[in-house]
């Protein structure tokens, strides 16, 4: 009974009926108003109350529906957040497990862990730099192999010297890590982020980053055996190869870096290139240094462009030097820059080879 008395619909009908009777009765007191007119006017007044109730009820339903939709939206957002948290948790667990397996004794398990990390980086962009850091740290681990003892690059198709089973297995794991680094880096002409690589002191063989975009690259005191291909790369950050190839067990083989672009500093000071070097059509936009570097064989800089300074102090060209730059540097340092006097070098306009009394030769710039 109390529930019925609280019903807005009941009171709407009661008020409507009372208003019908009140308006009709009041109009009937006027002799000029007919009974039908009084009833019609009273009905309109009562109907207005019902109409107002209908409008109120419709507005209430609208607000209830809006609240329901808001609750549904919040529920969906909560589910999405939970799904993201679950995905993050699963990704973190996969990441931790893969990193743990990198220390496994079996080489196939370590290879699988590397692929798991690479798959995680491909699926979650936020992991890419972290995964690249881990791959680089794996390659920075000390590594020795008999194939690296006597030469930086084998002649022809000569088979490399075999190592122990453990050394050969570890070599396969390391080459997998190198390949995955190249695959994870974005293409040179792509938009978006550029990722840093720290390979300080690493021992690498057939290292290939061609046509890739790199942020900061560190290869200080690294060994780059057989061949290294950086052709077509775009380096958004500074590049440092200081002292690479100078240690007994860390040499540099054939080094290709043609048609590349260094947007910031390119530091090759103190590097010993044991094999041919190519910087053909490469653009050096920032400071560039080959100070104290040694080019044991041919060094080709044909059509290279230097937009900043070039430091060649105490550099040694022991083979043929092609320095026919497309655009020579505005400022160049040539103090004791030696060349092989028996070779016919290609030089920029205004440069010359000066033969010294002891039979050596050095580069000079004519006044």
TrEMBL record:
It comes from the Bacteria. InterPro entries: 5peptide_repeat, ARM-type_fold. Residues 54-93 form a coiled coil. Keywords: Coiled coil, Membrane, Transmembrane, Transmembrane helix. The chain crosses the membrane at residues 9-29, 41-58. Residues 149-170 are annotated as: Disordered. The keyword Transmembrane applies. This is Pentapeptide repeat-containing protein. It comes from Amycolatopsis roodepoortensis. The lineage of its organism: Bacteria, Bacillati, Actinomycetota, Actinomycetes, Pseudonocardiales.
């Amino acid at each position: 009974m109390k529930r019925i008395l609280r019903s807005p619909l009941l009171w709407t009908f009661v008020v409507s009926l009372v208003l019908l009777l009140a308006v009709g009765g009041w109009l009937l007191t006027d002799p000029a108003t007919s009974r039908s007119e009084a009833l019609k006017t009273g009905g309109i007044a009562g109907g207005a109350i019902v109409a107002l109730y209908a409008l109120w009820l419709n507005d209430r339903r609208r607000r209830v529906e809006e609240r329901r939709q808001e609750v549904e939206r919040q529920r969906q957002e909560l589910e999405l957040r939970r799904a993201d948290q679950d995905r993050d948790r699963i990704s973190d667990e996969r990441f931790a497990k893969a990193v743990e397996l990198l220390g496994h004794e079996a080489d196939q398990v370590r290879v699988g862990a590397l692929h798991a990390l690479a798959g995680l980086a491909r699926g979650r962009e936020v992991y890419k730099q972290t995964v690249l850091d881990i791959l680089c740290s794996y390659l920075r681990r000390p590594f020795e192999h008999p194939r690296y003892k006597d030469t930086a690059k084998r002649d022809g198709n000569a088979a490399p010297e075999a190592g122990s089973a453990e050394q050969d297995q570890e070599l396969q794991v390391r080459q997998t890590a190198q390949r995955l680094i190249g695959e994870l880096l974005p293409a040179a002409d792509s938009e978006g982020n550029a990722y840093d690589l720290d390979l300080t002191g690493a021992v690498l063989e057939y290292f290939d980053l061609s046509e890739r975009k790199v942020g900061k690259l560190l290869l200080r005191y690294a060994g780059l055996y057989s061949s290294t291909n950086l052709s077509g790369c775009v380096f958004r950050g500074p590049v440092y190869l200081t002292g690479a190839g100078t240690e007994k067990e860390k040499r540099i083989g054939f080094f290709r870096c043609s048609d590349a672009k260094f947007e910031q500093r390119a530091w090759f000071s103190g590097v010993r290139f044991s094999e041919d070097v190519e910087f053909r059509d490469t653009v050096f936009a920032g400071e560039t240094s080959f100070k104290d570097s040694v080019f044991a064989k041919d060094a080709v800089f044909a059509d290279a462009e230097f937009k900043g300074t070039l430091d060649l102090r105490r550099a040694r060209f022991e083979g043929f030097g092609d320095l026919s730059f497309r655009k020579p540097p505005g400022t160049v340092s040539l103090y004791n820059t030696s060349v092989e006097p028996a070779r016919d070098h290609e030089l920029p306009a205004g440069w010359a080879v000066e033969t010294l009394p002891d039979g050596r030769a050095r580069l000079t710039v004519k006044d």
